[in-house]
Specification:
The complex is a heterodimer. By secondary structure, chain A is an all-alpha fold. Helices cover 76% and strands 0% of the residues of chain A. In chain A, helix 2 runs antiparallel to helix 3. Classes of the chains: A mainly alpha, B mainly alpha.
Protein backbone atom coordinates (compact mmCIF):
# COMPACT_ATOMS: atom_id res chain seq x y z
CA UNK A 1 0.00 0.00 0.00
CA UNK A 2 1.41 3.39 -0.91
CA UNK A 3 0.18 6.96 -0.65
CA UNK A 4 -1.27 6.80 -4.16
CA UNK A 5 -3.52 3.89 -3.25
CA UNK A 6 -4.57 5.56 -0.01
CA UNK A 7 -5.51 8.64 -2.04
CA UNK A 8 -7.55 6.46 -4.38
CA UNK A 9 -9.38 4.87 -1.47
CA UNK A 10 -10.03 8.34 -0.05
CA UNK A 11 -11.48 9.48 -3.36
CA UNK A 12 -14.01 6.66 -3.24
CA UNK A 13 -15.42 7.89 0.05
CA UNK A 14 -14.81 11.61 -0.45
CA UNK A 15 -17.80 13.84 0.36
CA UNK A 16 -20.03 10.79 0.60
CA UNK A 17 -22.95 12.98 1.68
CA UNK A 18 -22.88 14.93 -1.58
CA UNK A 19 -25.61 14.17 -4.10
CA UNK A 20 -23.22 13.40 -6.94
CA UNK A 21 -20.47 11.63 -4.98
CA UNK A 22 -19.32 8.23 -6.19
CA UNK A 23 -20.77 6.44 -3.18
CA UNK A 24 -23.99 8.45 -3.27
CA UNK A 25 -24.68 7.73 -6.94
CA UNK A 26 -23.77 4.08 -6.63
CA UNK A 27 -25.97 3.56 -3.57
CA UNK A 28 -28.96 5.41 -5.04
CA UNK A 29 -28.88 3.47 -8.30
CA UNK A 30 -28.61 0.15 -6.48
CA UNK A 31 -31.43 0.87 -4.04
CA UNK A 32 -33.75 2.40 -6.64
CA UNK A 33 -33.25 -0.55 -8.98
CA UNK A 34 -33.93 -3.02 -6.17
CA UNK A 35 -37.05 -1.25 -4.93
CA UNK A 36 -38.54 -0.76 -8.39
CA UNK A 37 -37.80 -4.29 -9.56
CA UNK A 38 -39.56 -5.88 -6.60
CA UNK A 39 -42.17 -3.18 -5.93
CA UNK A 40 -41.07 -2.71 -2.34
CA UNK A 41 -43.04 0.49 -1.88
CA UNK A 42 -43.00 0.52 1.92
CA UNK A 43 -39.22 0.68 2.22
CA UNK A 44 -37.57 3.91 3.32
CA UNK A 45 -35.46 4.38 0.25
CA UNK A 46 -33.37 7.27 1.60
CA UNK A 47 -32.51 5.38 4.73
CA UNK A 48 -31.23 2.40 2.75
CA UNK A 49 -29.08 4.69 0.60
CA UNK A 50 -27.64 6.33 3.71
CA UNK A 51 -26.95 2.95 5.34
CA UNK A 52 -25.07 1.64 2.33
CA UNK A 53 -23.08 4.85 2.03
CA UNK A 54 -22.23 4.88 5.73
CA UNK A 55 -21.32 1.20 5.80
CA UNK A 56 -18.96 1.38 2.85
CA UNK A 57 -17.53 4.66 4.11
CA UNK A 58 -16.76 3.13 7.53
CA UNK A 59 -15.12 0.03 6.11
CA UNK A 60 -12.94 1.87 3.64
CA UNK A 61 -12.03 4.43 6.31
CA UNK A 62 -10.89 1.55 8.54
CA UNK A 63 -8.72 0.20 5.73
CA UNK A 64 -7.19 3.62 5.16
CA UNK A 65 -6.55 4.01 8.89
CA UNK A 66 -4.54 0.79 9.04
CA UNK A 67 -2.41 1.79 6.09
CA UNK A 68 -1.85 5.28 7.45
CA UNK A 69 -0.61 3.83 10.74
CA UNK A 70 1.90 1.81 8.83
CA UNK A 71 3.01 4.82 6.80
CA UNK A 72 3.35 7.01 9.93
CA UNK A 73 5.72 4.47 11.41
CA UNK A 74 7.90 4.39 8.34
CA UNK A 75 7.74 8.13 7.55
CA UNK A 76 7.12 10.52 10.45
CA UNK A 77 7.07 13.61 8.20
CA UNK A 78 3.66 12.57 6.88
CA UNK A 79 2.06 12.51 10.31
CA UNK A 80 0.42 15.93 10.08
CA UNK A 81 -1.01 15.19 6.64
CA UNK A 82 -2.37 11.90 7.86
CA UNK A 83 -3.99 13.54 10.90
CA UNK A 84 -5.68 16.17 8.69
CA UNK A 85 -7.22 13.61 6.39
CA UNK A 86 -8.37 11.58 9.41
CA UNK A 87 -10.12 14.57 10.89
CA UNK A 88 -11.90 15.16 7.62
CA UNK A 89 -13.07 11.55 7.48
CA UNK A 90 -14.26 11.67 11.09
CA UNK A 91 -16.39 14.71 10.32
CA UNK A 92 -17.89 12.96 7.31
CA UNK A 93 -18.57 9.78 9.25
CA UNK A 94 -20.28 11.69 12.03
CA UNK A 95 -22.41 13.52 9.50
CA UNK A 96 -23.44 10.25 7.81
CA UNK A 97 -24.42 8.81 11.20
CA UNK A 98 -26.57 11.86 11.94
CA UNK A 99 -28.32 11.52 8.60
CA UNK A 100 -29.34 7.95 9.38
CA UNK A 101 -30.56 8.86 12.86
CA UNK A 102 -32.65 11.82 11.70
CA UNK A 103 -36.36 10.95 11.26
CA UNK A 104 -36.57 12.20 7.70
CA UNK A 105 -33.22 11.40 6.14
CA UNK A 106 -32.84 12.53 2.58
CA UNK A 107 -30.04 12.03 0.09
CA UNK B 1 -16.87 -34.58 -26.98
CA UNK B 2 -20.54 -35.08 -26.08
CA UNK B 3 -20.37 -38.75 -27.03
CA UNK B 4 -17.27 -39.19 -24.91
CA UNK B 5 -19.07 -37.75 -21.89
CA UNK B 6 -22.02 -40.09 -22.41
CA UNK B 7 -19.73 -43.06 -22.51
CA UNK B 8 -17.95 -42.13 -19.33
CA UNK B 9 -20.85 -40.99 -17.13
CA UNK B 10 -24.05 -42.62 -18.29
CA UNK B 11 -22.96 -45.89 -19.78
CA UNK B 12 -24.44 -48.46 -17.34
CA UNK B 13 -28.05 -47.28 -17.75
CA UNK B 14 -27.68 -46.35 -21.38
CA UNK B 15 -27.02 -49.96 -22.27
CA UNK B 16 -30.34 -51.12 -20.77
CA UNK B 17 -32.29 -48.28 -22.39
CA UNK B 18 -30.89 -49.04 -25.81
CA UNK B 19 -32.10 -52.61 -25.48
CA UNK B 20 -35.67 -51.46 -24.85
CA UNK B 21 -36.03 -48.90 -27.60
CA UNK B 22 -34.31 -50.54 -30.53
CA UNK B 23 -31.21 -49.98 -32.56
CA UNK B 24 -32.19 -46.87 -34.54
CA UNK B 25 -32.86 -44.79 -31.46
CA UNK B 26 -30.02 -46.27 -29.52
CA UNK B 27 -27.35 -43.66 -30.24
CA UNK B 28 -29.04 -40.30 -30.86
CA UNK B 29 -32.40 -40.60 -29.12
CA UNK B 30 -31.13 -42.32 -26.05
CA UNK B 31 -28.24 -39.94 -25.58
CA UNK B 32 -30.44 -36.83 -25.67
CA UNK B 33 -33.18 -38.25 -23.50
CA UNK B 34 -30.80 -39.57 -20.93
CA UNK B 35 -28.85 -36.36 -20.84
CA UNK B 36 -32.02 -34.34 -20.11
CA UNK B 37 -33.05 -36.64 -17.26
CA UNK B 38 -29.58 -36.65 -15.82
CA UNK B 39 -29.34 -32.84 -16.00
CA UNK B 40 -32.59 -32.48 -14.05
CA UNK B 41 -31.50 -34.79 -11.28
CA UNK B 42 -28.15 -33.10 -10.97
CA UNK B 43 -29.79 -29.76 -10.21
CA UNK B 44 -32.00 -31.05 -7.42
CA UNK B 45 -29.85 -33.76 -5.84
CA UNK B 46 -26.77 -31.64 -5.36
CA UNK B 47 -25.48 -33.47 -2.30
CA UNK B 48 -25.50 -36.88 -3.98
CA UNK B 49 -24.52 -35.67 -7.47
CA UNK B 50 -21.31 -37.15 -8.73
CA UNK B 51 -20.83 -34.39 -11.26
CA UNK B 52 -19.65 -30.95 -10.19
CA UNK B 53 -22.04 -29.27 -12.62
CA UNK B 54 -25.00 -29.88 -10.32
CA UNK B 55 -23.16 -28.51 -7.32
CA UNK B 56 -22.27 -25.30 -9.11
CA UNK B 57 -25.89 -24.80 -10.15
CA UNK B 58 -27.16 -25.38 -6.62
CA UNK B 59 -24.61 -22.98 -5.19
CA UNK B 60 -25.86 -20.23 -7.47
CA UNK B 61 -29.53 -20.64 -6.60
CA UNK B 62 -31.70 -21.03 -3.56
CA UNK B 63 -32.64 -24.71 -3.48
CA UNK B 64 -36.20 -25.57 -4.56
CA UNK B 65 -36.85 -26.98 -1.09
CA UNK B 66 -35.97 -23.69 0.59
CA UNK B 67 -37.95 -21.73 -1.99
CA UNK B 68 -40.98 -23.89 -1.18
CA UNK B 69 -40.55 -23.16 2.51
CA UNK B 70 -40.37 -19.43 1.84
CA UNK B 71 -43.48 -19.46 -0.37
CA UNK B 72 -45.42 -21.51 2.18
CA UNK B 73 -44.50 -19.10 4.97
CA UNK B 74 -45.64 -16.19 2.82
CA UNK B 75 -48.94 -17.87 1.91
CA UNK B 76 -49.59 -18.49 5.62
CA UNK B 77 -48.71 -14.85 6.37
CA UNK B 78 -45.96 -15.92 8.77
CA UNK B 79 -43.95 -12.81 8.07
CA UNK B 80 -41.47 -13.11 10.88
CA UNK B 81 -40.58 -16.65 9.81
CA UNK B 82 -40.45 -15.53 6.20
CA UNK B 83 -38.00 -12.73 7.01
CA UNK B 84 -35.78 -15.14 8.93
CA UNK B 85 -35.88 -17.70 6.13
CA UNK B 86 -34.92 -15.08 3.56
CA UNK B 87 -32.02 -13.90 5.71
CA UNK B 88 -30.84 -17.45 6.15
CA UNK B 89 -31.19 -18.79 2.63
CA UNK B 90 -30.44 -15.70 0.58
CA UNK B 91 -26.77 -15.12 1.15
CA UNK B 92 -26.20 -13.33 -2.13
CA UNK B 93 -27.95 -10.62 -4.15
CA UNK B 94 -28.72 -13.14 -6.90
CA UNK B 95 -30.50 -15.43 -4.44
CA UNK B 96 -32.39 -12.55 -2.88
CA UNK B 97 -33.46 -11.42 -6.34
CA UNK B 98 -34.59 -14.93 -7.26
CA UNK B 99 -36.60 -15.33 -4.05
CA UNK B 100 -38.35 -11.97 -4.29
CA UNK B 101 -39.21 -12.60 -7.96
CA UNK B 102 -40.80 -15.90 -6.97
CA UNK B 103 -42.87 -14.23 -4.24
CA UNK B 104 -44.09 -11.69 -6.80
CA UNK B 105 -45.13 -14.51 -9.15
CA UNK B 106 -47.23 -15.91 -6.31
CA UNK B 107 -48.78 -12.43 -5.87
CA UNK B 108 -47.49 -12.19 -2.31
CA UNK B 109 -47.91 -8.69 -0.93
CA UNK B 110 -45.22 -8.18 1.71
CA UNK B 111 -46.13 -6.07 4.77
CA UNK B 112 -44.07 -3.11 5.90
CA UNK B 113 -42.06 -4.97 8.55
CA UNK B 114 -41.03 -7.70 6.15
CA UNK B 115 -40.03 -5.14 3.55
CA UNK B 116 -37.89 -3.28 6.10
CA UNK B 117 -36.11 -6.50 7.06
CA UNK B 118 -35.55 -7.38 3.43
CA UNK B 119 -34.25 -3.87 2.78
CA UNK B 120 -31.72 -4.18 5.61
CA UNK B 121 -30.68 -7.57 4.32
CA UNK B 122 -30.16 -6.06 0.87
CA UNK B 123 -27.90 -3.41 2.40
CA UNK B 124 -25.79 -6.09 4.10
CA UNK B 125 -25.44 -8.18 0.94
CA UNK B 126 -24.77 -5.19 -1.29
CA UNK B 127 -21.93 -3.95 0.91
CA UNK B 128 -20.48 -7.47 1.15
CA UNK B 129 -20.42 -7.86 -2.62
CA UNK B 130 -19.57 -4.29 -3.61
CA UNK B 131 -16.74 -3.50 -1.22
CA UNK B 132 -14.28 -6.06 -2.65
CA UNK B 133 -15.04 -4.76 -6.14
CA UNK B 134 -14.29 -1.19 -5.11
CA UNK B 135 -11.04 -2.00 -3.35
CA UNK B 136 -9.86 -4.82 -5.61
CA UNK B 137 -6.97 -3.01 -7.24
CA UNK B 138 -6.06 -0.98 -4.18
CA UNK B 139 -5.26 -3.60 -1.57
Amino acid sequence: MNLGKIDSLSLIIQQADEHDSLLGVMSRVAVDTFIQKHSLTKINRNQLVDKITQNIHNQIAALIYEQEEHIKKTNSTLEQEVNCSRNQRRIEQKYLQERIKSPESSS
Amino acid sequence: MAKDISRTTIQPTQTSLSEESGIKAKAKGKFRTKEAQFADSRVYHHKSAKSTEGQRLSNRQVTPHNLDIIVQLAERSEWSGLSSAIQQHCDSLVKLDQTLSLLEKHSIDLPEDAQHTIGNHFVKLYVLEKLPELTKELL
